[in-house]
Each structure stands twice: as C-alpha cells, then as structure tokens.
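User: Quick sanity check before I run a bigger batch. Here is a single chain. Can you write out its predicted 3D structure?
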Amino acid sequence: RHHFISAGKARLRVDPQSSVYTGDTVTLSCEPRYPSDWSFYWKINSQDINHHQSTFSITESHPGETEFRCLTWRKHSHSEYSDPIRITVRERPTATVNVQPAGHVFIRERVTLTCEIESGDDWNYEWYKNNNLLRHAQRKKYEISNVDQTHAGNYTCKGTQSTGRIYTHTSAAVTLTVSAVKVKPTITSNPEGAALTGNTVTLYCKLHQAAGWTFYWSKHTQSSEKETITNVYTISSVRLSDGGQYWCRAGRGNPVYYTHYSDALWVKVTGE
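Assistant: Done. Predicted structure follows.
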C-alpha cells in the first residue's frame, strides 16, 4: 500500500488580474507549497483537462464566467486543489466613427470626426488614416479645420486604457471624400411658366447631396438673403412684385462654407 502525504493546498495565480475582454489571453500559474518535481492537474468548470504544465494560457473568445482550479502531484504526495479562481470575460467594447459633415466634403471646409465608444468616456484614443496611426490625434474628436485633398482617405479609431492592455475593437472605416470643385446648385420653380397672382410659387435649390445644408435665397430687388433649413422656398399668394430674378446657394459648418450661387431663375407673375 502507498500512503499519500498531503502537500497542502496548491496556490493559483492569474494574470491579468483586472478586467478581461474577449480576445484577451489569460495565463494561470499553479504553485506548489514546496518546490520539487511536480506534475500538475487542472480543472475548468469542474471538468478535468489534459494539461500537466505549471502554467496554463487560454485566449477568451466568448463572454461569460469560467472557474479554474489546479493541484500538484508527485509520487506518494499530492496537494489539495487550489481555491478556485473565477474569470469574468466581457464583450470587448466597440468604437464607431461619426463624421460631420457626413460623406462628401469640399476643400476649405471644417471636418470633425468623433470616436464614439459604447462604455464610458475614460479612454485614450487612437486615430488611423488608411491604417496608419495619426500620432498628433489622441482625443475623442479629431478636427480638420481647413480640409484639402490630402485629407481624403479611410479613417478608423479605437480606445485604449491601462497603458494599452485594455482596448476596444477597431471601428469600421469611414471614407472621407474631398472635392476640389466648389459645388453649384440648380434652381427650379413650380410652376415653371408664368404664375397667376394669388397662387403659390415654390422654388427648389437642388444639390447632389442635400442633407446638412442651410439654403439661402436672393432676389435682385432684395438687399438680404432669405434662409431656409430645407431646399424649398415657398411664395404664398404671389403678387406682381414677387416677379423677377432669383438665385440660391447653400452653406454648412462653422465657419460657414458656402457653395457657388446658382444661375439666375426668372419668375414671371401675371394678373388675372
């Protein structure tokens, strides 16, 4: 008969000890109380696993809680199982890039990219253009005050904490397209022909990308522009004095970037 001598309880250590996210690698170390030539046994969630080294590394692919224990064994002697260590794995946070103005921009506009992270604001930010780190951009907002065509490209961001050990997924790329040609809207009217006094005339200022603009309307007899938040300008109960030449342009941002003026449109008003 063999008599087994208890070698006390094994000690289990884990690195890292703080927050663990999907994709992180966790290393556990099983330490016998007395140094010697030991074999090691591991349990994960009460299941024995075929691993007999003193350290055990696992890359966490799914969120949830996992329990680890270990014991040490050698001929005629073994330890008790260690106290369990429970590791809670959380889904890695996601970063998203928002850009204003969205999509297509024009040279000399002001562009603001914002890195939105779903869990809190205690992040350090990294910005990438075409997968290259922008070393001068380290804040949540990345502003380009006077955009030109060298700024065109694909932008991504991610957040880091704790000297880079905790990090978010890298955001999906947002493509910034910069046009060197100043856009010129088209002005049209409904009705297209002469309007009768008392009826309604509607003017339209057409841009390829109408979202995010304020529209400005000029008439040859008016000293100041009228302003609308849509590309529609309505003249209700039209009078003879409303006839004449009209122009429109659009603007956005702060300071305001203006398009060219449209060509002139003649609005003709006739009496009954």
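The radius of gyration is 34 Å.

User: Great, the batch can go ahead then.
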